[in-house]
Amino acid sequence: MTTLRPLVRMLHLAATVLFGLFATAAGLSGSALVFRPELERALYEPPIVPGGSTQPMEVLRVRAMAVEPGRRISMVVLPDGITRPVQFILQKRDARTLKEADQLVIYVNPYSGAIEGTHRREGSFLGRLRDLHFAFFAGPPGLTFNGYVALALVFLAASGFVLWIQASPARQRFRLSLRGNARSIVWNLHRQAGAASFPLLIVIGLTGAYYPFRASYLAVIQATTGAVPPRGSPPVPSAAPFVRPASLDAIASAARAAFPEARLAVLRIPARDNTAWAATFHRPGDSGDSTDSGPTLHMDPFTLSVLRLDDSGAMPLGARLARWMEPVHYGKFGGLASRLAWLALGLLPLGFALSGAWMWWNRTRAAPRSSS
User: Fold this and answer.
1) What are the CB-based long-range contacts (under 8 Å, 24+) for 135-143?
2) For 151-209, how does the pLDDT look when each residue is reduced to its tens digit (9 = 90+)?
3) In the chain, which end has fewer C-beta atoms inside a 10 angstrom radius, N or C?
4) DSSP letter, residue 59
5) 340-343 long-range contacts, Cβ below 8 Å, gap at least 24?
6) Which ranges constitute the DSSP H helices of the chain?
């Protein structure tokens, strides 16, 4: 195995040179996005002073639509506390991507119906951070390249683990020594941190590559397990021309009655009337962002009947694997502890890049002296 060490080291160094800067940028932005809901609430969401009874959602919808009538409402995020507003997400019509949608968040006071604030996601600090993390500000080509960066992270973690085995006697592999000069201390920290984190970095890399290579992932999952989650909302069989869907209040009430064991968190409104509405619920312990997680009912907005239920607990293995990509990638499966651990993991590529560059510099400086 030691005969392969120069080759593994060369490949490890080459991958670092080619992808290290991008992996560092993705890691740092990912650390922040682990706490994106909290950051968005702290930076943009106005607090609400409770007072009296809440207004009907249809009244709130009309107030929100009046801000920019040319847009459509794509999502309604319901508050999980009495001091939080109702969020109406407006976007441009006929948008093909989130970037084209140019989403605008309208914060509406559920008691008075007043518009308490607005937040345009595209171009905001968190919006740019998300664009950096997913696509390096380069759109679809950047998203594809980001997939290769994620796979490069997998290779770096695996090759670093191989180098750790090759360079460490069995009795010293798990010994962290902070004695000696700065060079030996940095080398020891680099290899021990890499060995301790490599399985988690592989998980983060593989789940990160899911987003640009989703079709390939789903094909592999289906081939190996026989099942994947259904994509999108089902068509509405009762859709008819010139017939309006039921009101927001009626759809929300029907959804709560159909799934009373959890809190209704999000209503997704499709662009076309012949597509089902999606009502996402939150139970205690559900992972992921408020708009991405929890059991989801797909409802006929005309008859208020349930067309499909997506619930990880009742899905086959393949469907659960695909549905868990997002919470696993962001560490949102074990509460605050896993999120803090994922925040630290996002900082590691920077630490590895700096310590690795210093180790390489010391090695190249020592080579001429040893040959003279």
Assistant:
1) 136/22, 136/25, 139/99, 140/97, 143/211, 143/212
2) 999 999 999 988 888 766 666 666 666 676 787 788 778 888 888 899 999 999 999 99
3) C
4) H
5) 341/200, 342/30, 342/31, 342/34, 342/204, 343/31, 343/34, 343/35
6) 5-33, 36-44, 57-65, 98-101, 125-135, 139-167, 182-208, 214-225, 248-258, 317-323, 325-329, 335-371
